[in-house]
Each structure stands twice: as structure tokens, then as C-alpha cells.
Specification:
This is SDR family NAD(P)-dependent oxidoreductase. The protein has a single domain, classed as 3-Layer(aba) Sandwich (Rossmann fold). A seven-stranded parallel sheet has the order 3-2-1-4-5-6-7, with helices on both faces. The protein is built from seven helices and seven strands; from the N terminus they run βαβαβαβαβαβααβ. The chain has about 280 residues and is of the alpha/beta class.
């Protein structure tokens, strides 16, 4: 799914990066790019085989990495992960909060069918995946007077509703609020917090039907679905000193999808493209 090879410019030289949900898709792409940019990378995920595989990929590409197989939604799991990273690389000063748990089946579907127990479980786990790593990292850095950067992976669902995704959209709305609030609170310590809202990104669980994929891409102003490396590039910007005066912001990385009022399929006027612009009559 990567569109570009992970060649870097040393933007994270000397940094220690921990990527949650780093075993596949967007998380894997961010982990690979952090390694290419010079960071020592801890790839954290519940999938032990995959975190080892991603860490091996980073090292084979010339980077430094290891895998941490742990549940990052609990204080205990996060504490264990950070201790392992600190013993091996030192303090984590780049945190990418990418992980989310799909949760119970009853958390997905019509609102009237979402059960209270599924709601409680989904929000507890997914807000824990956001809170616990952030709190552990920020506490360690503040205690030692060190600066750092945090990037939270949000979603369009934070601002625009998906049908049948009520708990998910709620948690992503919380992600955006958390990003703003924690950024303001931690700014005096020099810890920056920002977020990304990926648009339609091709991942390994997507429908393989080419017609479905084409239909999805046709709704995007830039004319294609995203790939994980599109998100990774923006994450590197926010994690590095290129964005040293940016905090409390959440950016859409979506090919222009959120900027349009209507998708082309439901537009009330003709959508002009290089293929048909010659048909346009000025003033017509």
C-alpha cells in the first residue's frame, strides 16, 4: 500500500518514537517512516508476530527498531511497554496514538441496536488507548524537563457522521477534543500535541472489488484514494521540528474530501475535469 519508498532526511535523528497500532496499514507506514527519518522505533500492537515483522523491516531498511506486543489500552500494559522502550532506547519523545480496537459486534450498526455494554466497552478501551500512552509519556518528559511531540490519529467521523458508526464517531470526536485540550495544557512543558484525520485510505481489509474501489476514489477531488504513506508523511511533519510552532491542531489528510460540499455523484452542476473542460463555453 506504500506509494513512496521510506527514504528519509534525518528529521527525527536522535528521537525515540513509539507507534501504537503499528503492526499494519497506517501504523506500519508511520513506523517505517519514523525509522527512515532516524528515530529509534518501538512498534506496539497486540499482534506479536506482526510487530516483530515490522520491526525487522525497519532494521533491514537500515533503521533501529523493536516490537512490543502489549495491550496499550490499560495503565499496566502501557507502563510495561514504556519501561521496555526506556531500557532499550531511552525516553519516548515521539508518540503516535494510532491504535484503536474494533470492539464488540454490538458496537456497530443502527444506534437502536447498540447495547449499553458494547458502548461502555468500546469507549473505555478506545479512550484508554488515547489517554494512557499520552499520560505516561508526558509525565516522564515533564519530570525530566524534556520536550516531545504527540500525534493522534483521528477520523472524518470526528466532524462528519458515518451511518452505523456511533461509538466510533464519538470516540474520534473525543480524540479531537483531547488533542486540543492536552495541547494547551502541556504547552508550557514544550510538549506539542496535534492530530490527523485520514480520509479514504486503502488498507488491507478493504473490499477487493475494483468497482467498489473506483467508486470510492471518484468521490475524492484529487482523484484517488489515499495510501498509508500519505498519512505517514503528515505524521512526520507534525512529529518533527518542521512543525515546531504548531500545536492543538487536527488536519484533514484526505485528498480534499472534507472540503467539498457534495460528492461528484450528487453535485447539482457539472464537474469539470481535464477530460471535459474543452466542452465548457465561457458564460454558459
Amino acid at each position: 500500500m506504500d506509494r513512496t519508498s521510506p527514504t528519509g532526511y534525518g528529521l527525527l535523528d536522535g528521537r525515540v518514537a513509539l507507534i501504537t497500532g503499528g503492526a499494519r496499514n497506517i501504523g506500519r507506514a508511520i513506523a517505517m517512516r519514523c525509522g527512515a527519518e532516524g528515530a529509534a522505533v518501538a512498534v506496539a500492537d497486540v499482534d506479536a508476530d506482526r510487530v516483530t515483522s515490522v520491526a525487522d523491516e525497519i532494521e533491514q531498511a537500515g533503521g533501529t527498531a523493536f516490537g512490543v506486543a502489549v495491550d496499550m489500552s490499560t495503565e499496566e500494559g502501557v507502563g510495561s511497554a514504556f519501561e521496555s522502550v526506556e531500557q532499550r532506547f531511552g525516553l519516548v519523545d515521539v508518540l503516535i496514538n494510532n491504535a484503536y480496537a474494533r470492539g464488540p459486534r454490538a458496537a456497530w450498526g443502527p444506534f437502536l441496536h447498540v447495547t449499553p455494554s458494547a458502548w461502555d466497552e468500546f469507549t473505555r478501551v478506545n479512550l484508554g488507548l488515547l489517554f494512557h500512552p499520552t499520560h505516561r509519556m508526558a509525565s516522564a518528559l515533564a519530570e525530566r524537563g524534556r520536550k516531545g511531540t504527540i500525534v493522534n490519529i483521528s477520523s472524518h467521523g470526528a466532524a462528519r457522521a458515518h451511518r452505523n458508526y456511533i461509538p466510533y464517531d464519538t470516540v474520534k470526536g473525543g480524540t479531537d477534543s483531547f488533542t486540543r485540550s492536552v495541547a494547551v495544557d502541556l504547552a508550557p512543558w514544550g510538549i506539542r500535541v496535534n492530530g490527523l484525520r485520514p480520509g479514504a485510505v486503502e488498507v488491507d481489509s478493504d473490499d477487493p472489488d475494483p468497482h467498489v474501489r473506483r467508486h470510492r476514489a471518484e468521490q475524492i477531488p484529487l482523484g484517488r484514494a489515499g495510501v498509508p504513506d500519505d498519512i505517514a508523511s503528515s505524521a512526520i511533519y507534525l512529529a518533527s521540528d518542521l512543525s515546531q510552532w504548531v500545536t492543538g491542531q487536527t488536519f484533514n489528510v484526505d485528498g480534499g474530501m472534507a472540503a467539498q460540499a457534495r460528492a461528484p455523484q450528487v453535485e447539482t452542476q457539472r464537474v469539470w475535469t481535464p477530460a471535459n473542460i474543452a466542452d465548457h463555453r465561457p458564460g454558459g
